[in-house]
Each structure stands twice: as structure tokens, then as C-alpha cells.
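tl;dr need the bound structure. longer version: we got a ligand (pyridoxal-5'-phosphate) that a collaborator sent over and nobodys looked at where it sits. i said id run it. heres the input, straight from their email, havent touched it
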Amino acid sequence: MRRTELQISLSALENNLKVIKSFTNASVQGVVKANFYGLFDDRMHEIIEQNVESYAVVTIDEALSLRKLTSKPILLFQGVHEQNDYKMIEENNLDFTIHSSWQLKGLSDFNLENSRIWLKLNTGMNRLGFNDKDFLIALKEIEILNIKDIVLMSHLASSETKSNPNNLKQIKKFIDVTKKFSYLKSMANTGGIFNFKEAHFDIVRPGIGMYGGKYSEFGIKPVTKLRSKIISINKVRKGESVGYDGMWTAQESSRVAAVGIGYADGLPFFSSEKTVIINGEKFYTAGMLSMDLMLVNLGINDKVKVGDWVDIWGFENDLSNIAQQFETISYKLLTNISSRVSKNYIE
Ligand SMILES: *Cc1c(COP(=O)(O)O)cnc(C)c1O
């Protein structure tokens, strides 16, 4: 069997939920979009279920699968994508966002008494949400509907950077527009939870923090380890090249390991040297990443052998640092892992 695995630590997940909860008095909405950031499993869900008061996803399919596992509120972050979706919302008691006026059309044709509407204000990210004036108009329209509740929400564009002044501008704007209303309010993702207490309001929405993708400085632990076994080792002489386009050339007689993981497993494509760990020791990749294989320069090391594990990342480092060397972000590393990588859940 090809051994390319993502280990997922359930105790780290649990730790992260506890850490997040220790930072806030707000109620916690578990953001589980994109199949729990790529990590879904029943045991994973159980741990999150014990620690959150509601969930958020993006697609109706995600919401329907989750509805089979929980009776807690499930929010559709982008609301409906077409008017027909309100039928599914009605049948499955889903909460939904309204970010644009077209989503208001036909709302009153449905029985939404078991749904909360999350009305989204654009406070400066300029991605989704109403401007102030239209926000107040939309609020008037939904206030007369027979619905369970209204939540006023916005989203921070730069929450991971505490020093970015746009955060406080966004928070101030949110407060200015919503302070006269007593509805529940929500603004903070993980970065907002750790960096901006004033953005917590009533409901916080952590995603990446739960999955250990960032914020180790606040006590968040990495939840994943990606590793694969060496399936072959070649000897190359000084001056010989390896891999597609011969992009890497041996500077001395070297051993080169072929490892069973490639970009089709979800690793970002690369052609420059990346670090990996074998038996606790650091090595560099050699040449271009292939679809199903990665080459590692073992140099003159003669101890590493076929069958040894190669760690692409582990439980020791903040995943956002690993992401940097791949010129990407930890969100993408997690959500890109492909289905042919086996997921093994450990305590
Ligand atoms: C994805 C998402 C979150 C979670 O963000 P993290 O940075 O992963 O904590 C929160 N709110 C909204 C609107 C989102 O789309």
C-alpha cells in the first residue's frame, strides 16, 4: 500500500477549542466549511460538537451532511446562491446570510421561522455585504419577517495583523452602524479572536485556529502531520541531474530518495529546494515536484533507507511557517490535501 498519510491529532483539536474558548466570553460558532478545512471525520465532528454552539458552512450540500450529525444552528456563510435554495433552508432549519439585496427577493414566500438571518455589513473588506444605507434598508425588510432571530455581522480583512490600522477602522464602522440595535452581533474569525477583543461581540467564528493552522503563539497546537515513505533511493554522480528538466544537479556524489507524494496529493507545486525531515534530520528536496513523487537529496548520508518516513510537516512547527516556504498559506495546505492521501486520526 502506498504510504502517504495525513495524521490528525484529536487531542490537539480539543486543545485548540479550549484555547479559543479561554480567549472569549462570546458564543463560539465552529467554521467547518470546505469539509472541516479538509479534515472531516466523525470523531473530529464530535469534539467540535461538544465545544461550539453553532456551525458555519458555505454550500447547501455541506449543510445537509452536517444536519444529519447535529441539531445545532448551521449558518450558510454566503446565504442562498439562487432563490430555490430557500426551500432547502426551510426544510433543514438552516441559518443564512444575506449579503446582497437580490437575496431578499421572494423571502416571504417561505416559512423561515426556524432560521436566523445573518445580515452582513461591508465595513471595508469590499467583498460581500451591504453598505451602511442599504444595510439599514435591508434590516427594515427582514425585521417584519417571521424568523427566529437576526444577527448583524461583518468580516475583518486583516485580522491576522494586529498592527494593521484597518482593523480598528472596520470595528469602529461596525459599531457605528449597529450600536442602536440590540440584535446579536458577530465579527471575529480566529485572528479577530486573538488580536481584537473589541471585535468579539456575541458570536465568534473560528476556523483555522481550531485546525491548528496558525497562532501557535497563543497556545494553538498543530493538528496535522503530513508524511510519506521513501520508495526508492538512487545514487547519482557529481554533475548528474535528477527529475523533470533535470532541474537539480548533484554537486558531489549523492544519494537521492524518491518519496511517494506529489502535487496530485495536494502539495503545492515547487521547483526550488524545500526542507523535509527524515528520522529527525533536515534534508532538502531536489528538483521539481512531480505529480506523484518528490525527490530528496540525501547527500552523502548512508543511513536513510527505503521505507523511512519523510515528514513534509509535523506537530512541532506552526503550519503557517511551513506554508511560507511553499509560498502559500496554511488554509490552502490543509484544504488542498487530496482524497488519495489517507487520513489517520490519532489521540
Ligand atoms: C472562513 C470564515 C471564517 C473563519 O476564518 P478563520 O480565519 O479560518 O478563522 C469566519 N468568518 C467568515 C465569514 C469566513 O468566511
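gonna send this back to them w/ a short note. The chain is about 25% helix and 25% strand.
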